[in-house]
Design brief:
CATH architecture of chain A: 3-Layer(aba) Sandwich
Helix content of chain B: 25-40%
Strand content of chain A: 5-15%
Largest sheet of chain B: 4 strands, mixed
Order of helices and strands of chain B: HEHEEHHEH
Shape of chain B: globular
Structural class of chain A: alpha+beta
Order of helices and strands of chain A: HHEEEHEHEEHHH
Strand order of the largest sheet of chain B: 1-2-3-4
CATH superfamily of chain A: Glutaredoxin
Number of strands of chain A: 6
CATH superfamily of the domain at 38-53 and 60-122 in chain B: BolA-like
Radius of gyration of chain B: 16 Å
CATH class of chain A: Alpha Beta
CATH architecture of the domain at 38-53 and 60-122 in chain B: 2-Layer Sandwich
Largest sheet of chain A: 4 strands, mixed
CATH topology of chain A: Glutaredoxin
CATH topology of the domain at 38-53 and 60-122 in chain B: GMP Synthetase, Chain A, domain 3
Number of helices of chain B: 5
Radius of gyration of chain A: 17 Å
Distance between the termini of chain B: 46 Å
Number of strands of chain B: 4
CATH class of the domain at 38-53 and 60-122 in chain B: Alpha Beta
Oligomer: heterodimer
Structural class of chain B: alpha/beta
Strand order of the largest sheet of chain A: 4-1-5-6
Largest interface: A-B, 46 and 34 residues
């Protein structure tokens, strides 16, 4: 049930945000490489698999509620991490910036089907709720687990 | 006391339905950018500050994470992702800049974009996914 994911009265993490030394080092390293973009590399990445996700953290341990929601929705539809490609933007500051200019979309997570930008968390939630996600998966040759479950019920 | 309740309500402004959560300067500017947008012409608008639910400094006064509910006839026949692109375009200046914390721009923008009919059918805005701690490294 998606509602339990979005229960904002769930306990809040009392954590302080402070930049770590390693993340400061990573940013300085990435700006020393091309000041241009890695759009060409991203163009390859989005075509490397039927479903490609750019997120914060990894599917086993998302570092952001919106990224987590995307992973969970994909899971509802039967897509496990071994089936799609996930890229952690927290590991690469250049990627984190350039993915936004590549798709002309300002936030992470970002989901691609067959190289085409589908949307972020909100879009995926909406598509999951209105049945569009099942259709979009069908178009790329993936049968949603929810569809399979519905069909089983009918039999 | 009743007087302090009245004063705090007055401070929130006449359009308190238009906001939820801490209503700072960024929330007000987001509201006015969307309200005055000729591409969007919203019939209903609500700016919800969700920063308090995230791992940010001084979270009760932060303006880092927002949810926007926007109802507009302009969304009729437009796909979800393209509705969001329209809103992103109007709010581009708030979303640009460094993605790292504290350096200009908001961290997250959640968008609920509906046509007036869709809003009539379900006049409710769901909460956003709970924070997963962000970039804080765990030891």
């Amino acid at each position: 049930n998606l509602r339990c994911l979005f229960n904002t009265t769930a306990s809040l993490r009392q954590c302080k945000l402070s930049p770590t030394l390693s993340s400061l080092l990573t940013s300085s390293l990435s700006t020393s490489s091309t000041t241009g973009s890695m759009h060409d590399k991203i163009a390859e990445m989005v075509k490397a698999n039927k479903v490609v996700v750019f997120m914060k953290g990894v599917p086993e341990e998302p570092r952001c509620g919106f990224s987590n929601a995307v992973i969970k929705i994909l899971e509802f539809h039967g897509l496990k991490p071994d089936v799609y490609s996930a890229h952690n933007v927290l590991d690469n500051e250049q990627l984190r910036q350039d993915i936004k200019t590549f798709s002309d979309w300002p936030t992470i997570p970002q989901v691609y089907f067959n190289g085409e930008f589908i949307g972020g968390c909100d879009v995926l939630i909406k598509m999951h709720q209105n049945g569009e996600l099942i259709e979009e998966l069908k178009k790329i040759g993936i049968k949603s687990a929810l569809l399979a479950a519905q069909e089983e019920k009918k039999e | 006391s009743r007087i302090s309740l009245f004063i705090s309500a007055a401070r929130r402004g006449l359009c308190s339905d238009a906001f939820a959560g801490y209503q700072g300067p960024i929330a007000c500017r987001i509201q006015s950018s969307l309200q005055s947008s000729s591409e969007l012409r919203p019939t209903h608008l609500k700016i919800i500050n969700e920063s308090a639910g995230h791992a940010v400094a001084d979270r009760h006064r932060a303006e880092t994470h927002f949810k926007v509910l926007i109802v507009s006839n302009q969304f009729d026949g437009v796909s979800v992702v393209n509705r969001h692109r329209l809103v992103n375009k109007v709010l581009a200046s708030y979303l640009g800049g460094s993605s790292s914390s504290g350096r200009g721009g908001i961290h997250a923008l959640s968008i609920d974009a509906r046509t007036p009919d869709e809003w009539l059918k379900e006049a409710e805005v769901s909460g956003s996914p709970p924070c997963m701690g962000g970039e804080r490294k765990q030891n």
